[in-house]
Design a protein that fits this description.
249 residues; alpha+beta; two-stranded antiparallel sheet; 9 helices
């Protein structure tokens, strides 16, 4: 796989609940860049509002997509589609008495993502105000059509096809390649629009060759823009929901 290593376990963890408050207070700007290209430091939610305006993605479409994400995650959970890829973890959960404010700790086993909201309705999503409404009357990003901040971790086992065959292992997937593509900083979320065609070309593929698509759901405008620009069929994209329901990153 790399330098002769036959099998690799690759993993990572993201604890944004611990990092986000620190980053918000300690980020430093490079003066010359800040003057010539201040968009580099735009909060992601502001870039999402830019994408919505620039590519005519309405608030209604965003809310409809967010509802579908919630529905698809709920259906996937009910059908057990995630069960085989989640390892139950014993944790200590802090609970708070609403009446007294007293906190207590109790043992708990996490067996699934718990932050999605299956009871979400289009009406409840439509009732939410835009996060940036106080500074932008045309803002469309809300708490409902954007992802919440969630901690998470994952790991996967990687080996060559020859090694998998030798061990009698049936692969879950095959890594074919990746590309890096840039876009303007004020529309940060539309990277897939530029990266996907380049990757397909390098692999000798076309859009119709792809059966399933996963596009990051940090904000509903991201997969919607990608689908519009690339022609991704909705019934093939994020079929088990995404980050709007289960959280990001």
């Amino acid at each position: 796989v790399h330098e002769g290593v036959p099998v690799v376990v690759a993993g990572g963890v993201e604890s944004i609940s611990l990092v986000q408050p620190v980053v918000a207070k300690t980020t430093e700007m490079e003066p010359s860049l800040a003057e010539s290209c201040p968009e580099l430091w735009m909060p992601m939610i502001d870039t999402a509002d830019v994408v919505g305006k620039r590519y005519s993605i309405s608030r209604e479409r965003q809310d409809e997509y967010a509802l579908e994400s919630q529905k698809r995650v709920a259906a996937a959970q009910a059908e057990g589609r995630f069960d085989a890829e989640i390892v139950p973890m014993e944790v200590e959960m802090v609970t708070k008495d609403k009446a007294t404010g007293e906190k207590s700790r109790m043992p708990y086993i996490v067996t699934k993502d718990e932050c999605n909201r299956p009871s979400t309705t289009l009406e409840s999503l439509s009732s939410l105000g835009a996060v940036r409404a106080d500074v932008d009357s045309d803002a469309t990003i809300t708490a409902g059509n954007a992802s919440q901040l969630s901690d998470g971790a994952s790991a996967c086992v990687i080996m060559s096809d020859a090694e998998a065959e030798r061990r009698g292992i049936e692969p879950l997937g095959i890594f074919k390649g990746f590309v890096v593509a840039g876009c303007a900083p004020d529309e940060m979320g539309i990277g897939p629009v530029f990266a996907v065609p380049r990757l397909l070309e390098r692999q000798g593929l076309v859009m119709e060759d792809i059966d399933l698509w996963e596009v990051n759901e940090a904000f509903a405008v991201v997969p919607l823009c990608a689908a519009d620009k690339l022609g991704i069929p909705f019934d093939k994209m994020n079929v088990s929901g995404g980050a709007i329901a289960v959280g990001h990153p």
